[in-house]
Amino acid sequence: MFENVRVISFAADKCDDGITVGELLRKNGVSRRLMVKLKRAENGITRFGEHMRTIDRVKAGDVISLKIADEKLLDANPALSAAVAYEDDDVAVFDKPADMPVHPSAKHREDTLGNCFSAMYDGLAFRPINRLDKDTSGLCAVAKNPHAANVLQNEVKKVYYAVVCGKISEDGVIDAPIARAADSVIKRVVREDGQRAVTEYHVIKGNEKYTLLKIILHTGRTHQIRVHFAYIGHPLAGDDFYGGSCEDIEKQALHCGELKFKRVCDGKPVTVVSELREDIKKLLVTSL
Predict the structure, then answer these.
(1) Of 2, 33, 170, 225, which one has the greatest count of Cβ atoms within 10 A?
(2) What is the mean pLDDT of the segment spanning 255-277?
């Protein structure tokens, strides 16, 4: 069984002398919600083994430790498989295959990355930092505790790779608002009353039929990449939901190929990469 208790410590330096425990924890990215939970837990917040309140003062050299317990929220499915591309005490980065949803839903109760995570890390809640569509492959970071989830939220930089239909010759930026389609719960469209969405793209190579792009999102709207490229007349190959051709590939040619973030424990930078999946590689070889 995976250990479901994580102890995280923060040292007070000279500039912290005299501030409260709560101020020290907030300075280090601990959420107010987690502090409330730890105050109610036995030995949730300690200094050298002694119970501490958030209103207590710290001195330079004090080490404040948090004992963070977690609980399993999703059913485990040990039959599922997803490679772990990177792991430390606070985060696991999965290389998610296409066809695997991230979250359980009415149609996918036991075949998701969440169910896979629960089988691998018994006792931990599933807290994905970035989310991918079911048929989008690639890197998905999952926090192993609530503190890591809070620190890494909106701090993970992502790079996507996509093959779109048609020829794109120059790099560009798509700045077009996205809203939910009036006749669908799932489908999104570009519409003036939508939320602002910005997609930056760089051409890697291509021909008259397909173009391989490197994509950086400056916002995180549902289906943003798929909607934006359909909007400019270049839907993703394999994405028939938004008008893409499935002649040479059955699933949308979209892959999260790079994640960058700083480690929760010491702030050191981490870069995780993932190769394009085989059906996208085959598409590039045969068509470009």
Answers:
(1) 225
(2) 96
